[in-house]
Specification:
Blueprint lengths: L1 E8 L18 E9 L2 E5 L20 E3 L2 E3 L39 E2 L39 E3 L6 E3 L66 E7 L14 E5 L2 E6 L3 E5 L8 E8 L6 E9 L5 E9 L18 E9 L2 E7 L7 E10 L2 E4 L2 E6 L9 E5 L7 E2 L12 E3 L10 E2 L2 E5 L10 E13 L5 E10 L21 E7 L10 H5 L4 E10 L5 E13 L4 E3 L12
Antiparallel strand pairs: 1-2, 1-9, 2-6, 3-12, 4-5, 7-8, 9-11, 10-11, 13-14, 14-17, 15-16, 15-18, 18-19, 18-20, 20-31, 21-25, 22-23, 23-30, 24-29, 25-29, 26-28, 26-30, 27-29
Length: 572
Amino acid sequence: MANVEVLVVAGGGSGGIEFGGGGGGGGIIYKSGEVVAAGDYPIVVGAGGASVSSRIQGNSGNNSTAFGNTAFGGGGGGMFQSVGSDGGSGGGGGGRSTSVGGSATQTGTDGYGYGGGTAISNGNDGGGGGGGAGLVGGDASGVYGGDGGNGFQSSITGTSTYYAGGGGGGTDARKANSIGGAGGLGGGGDGAGNGTGQNADGQAGTANTGGGGGGGSISNDFSGAGGSGIVIISYATDGSDGIDPSSTGGTKTTSGGQTIHTFTADGTFTAVEAVVVAPTVTASAATSITSTTADANGEITATGGEDATERGFVYDTTSQTQPGDVSPATSSYGSVENETGTFGTGTYSLGLTGLTKGTTYYVRAYAKNTEGYAYSAGEVSFATPTPATSPGTMANDTAVGTEAWSGVDNAKASDDNRASNTSSFNDPVLPFITNYLKATNFGFEIPTGATINGILVEIERSERSGDGSVYDSEVKIVKADGSIGTTNKADTATDWPAEAYYPYGGATDLWGETWTASDINDADFGTVLAANVFSGTFVNAAVDHIRITVYYTGAPTITGASTITGISTITF
């Protein structure tokens, strides 16, 4: 069995004649989940009520049917001094009396229809407006015929549209000040009158909307015919509603992942049941990687005709073959992270926890429906980092500058104990450059074979004085052989602010060097800082902490049958 969305709109009623009431809009049946099985279903689209002349009641519209649901035709508008007819939505009352509109017969949970409006007896003798599928018809008033009620608003086609608006009530068009009622939203026709664009004939309801016709003026004129109905059927193109898009009938279009069958005339809808297969799923690069956690990312790109009831990831520290149609517990992967529920197409992420630092993991996405399990064709790998520790070794290096740093070990931790230059109080020789404050021995354990993508140095620095100026002079990298790199990342133009970490380099910045994992892991790898103490009294350059983050990608990145592009840099 399957589910479809269906809108059934009956034909609208025609307007009455001689100050006639507007025709009622066609009744509507709307169901968001009509249950159908494979097979042929007759579709009937009701015609609108025919226009009338002479002093006569408007004709009711014809019924529309689909899947055993019947929408009733709109009621005809009342003629001279007569009540409107009952219908899916009722017709408006006839003029030259206070004739009432007809009642709506379209009722029930899925039915939509409203009654017609009341006529008036005065110098213009306006008819009442026909009822719409979304609103009652308006009463005639003063020089105006009653407006038709608005119709029912639906987005079943992918575009918001009104259906089955009521027709406007007619007036005596021979009189200059008479204004026919406006047709309701949803194809309702305007009533007869002497207003702009109006004449002695009521206007027809719009075809294939179920709109009611407008009321006519006097006996020799014509009322507006009711608009014909329409039947619209919609279901998910991917088969997740249980209907295959090879189903036939009406005019078939697609919009927003839905297949739509539109019937503007009688026909047959042939429902073909979708064949359910396992979902299709892909894996993408892991994100938010730390030494013990990561976010795995996947996407269900096709449901296979039925929503998944389980989705997740399998992972291991060694690459595994494609599992096939087996449960994660039966696969060769050692770990699984999943969730259960009802899942259509779309991306998803789940957190992996309890990981081991400095380890490469191999991940596949998977999903399950009643036809079985499906796994991504390719694996995605990532390496958990070894967390950067604070520098194990701090030193004053006299390779540059004239002023030494004191308390150098204070820069090993962010604890408000600071390394600072030794000359500080009202120094007579300004400006001066400090020696290097050198930080090494960070204790990295980057996996062998990893690709180094970038290095971020962060220095928690501040100016400790009342009125001085301190700037960067040099910020450089220290290589594995102990030599100092040539690239200077110093910000020589900005006075040191209040204490905060200031970044140098970044996730894709290699500082002009080529790196291997062993270079980063070497005890001599690190960074140096020299400060320019430019001016002031009682001024110190102070450093509370230095830390380094290394961004790298584990190797290999992808294994398996599929080619996956756009793998993100793995950072920590």
